[in-house]
Amino acid sequence: MPGVELFQEERNLASVLAFLSSISNNPNHVSAVSILEDVTTGSLNLLIAINKAKFDDGNHILQQLKDRFEDIFAQLSQAPYSIDSNVEDAVFAAIISMCFKRILCRLRFTNSYIKASRQPITLLLQKAMALRSVKPFFNFMERSRDVIKFVESWRKQETPDELGSLVRSIQHLSKISGFQDVIESISNHEMDPSSKKSLLNGVRKVARYFEAARFLCNLSKKHPSIQRLRFILVKPPSNAFGETSTALCTSTLSSMIARIASLHGLQWNADRICHILGTNEIEAGSRFINQTNTILLEAKIHAAIQLILHCETNKFTPQPRVICASKDACFLCNAFILTH
Known about the structure:
The chain is an alpha+beta fold and 340 residues long. The chain has helices spanning 7-20, 59-76, 85-106, 121-130, 138-157, 160-174, 179-184, 193-222, 253-264, 270-277, 281-297, 303-314, 331-339; strands spanning 31-38, 43-50, 230-233, 323-325. A hairpin with a 4-residue loop joins strand 1 (31-38) and strand 2 (43-50). 30% of the residues are buried. InterPro entries: OTT_1508_deam-like (IPR027796).
């Protein structure tokens, strides 16, 4: 940030914007952002990229992100030195508009792109309220009833305003003292651990949309320069996307296991691994080749790598200090970033 050496705030801002950039439920549309300071103009730029297997992949999502982010920050700039509750409401409304479909998916009101239909978190909440093992914390029951009430209102109208009210009520629930303790106090017999984890995770993620609006408003008060944030779409050059060879997987499962075992000094062999997996070497070898070929054919240039390539190619000074993706970085991306 111009004149501000507060790395933590920069990282928090990038984290919030990366979270909001997850507007698609498609796992192929993972996005990443990075904040770049333009020392010549004193302005801030947000670099945005999305996973790409081909040059044109996800371009419509990128443009949507730019347009929606501009809507959010336009609300912040309406009252640059007086961020009040009205501005916060407007920012929150813009966030709901941007992330409408993703919020519905997080609430499990719509099906995930790749996962089977799962119980809505509000249904899990109702089950938690009805269980005898739940400690009778008054605030938990009161806030939970509010959430259920707003769910019913949403189902009647299904408007952005109704969804915003529901998100607010979930944020209020997430902030009560002892919320996690209440859920964890439920016995595994009455609610399986995965459902409890799913409920806690879902509530926290949905609550974050309201918290994002408040965070942006508070940061805007402290650093008005972020109100002029510019959004730049990053796309690799067309020659970065080469043709995948028709001769794909040339390794066998046995040779791959032997190579890995040798590198790490392990006594592995294909027979032993196949026995543990309850299969035979022919079947396992066939599945290994098919899966490897699928990975190679569907390989993408991940968004975080695109941002690094863009910054290195343009030799920005100073270089961005933070890269945040809309989901955890894969092993290879993380290893590359750590060693870069």
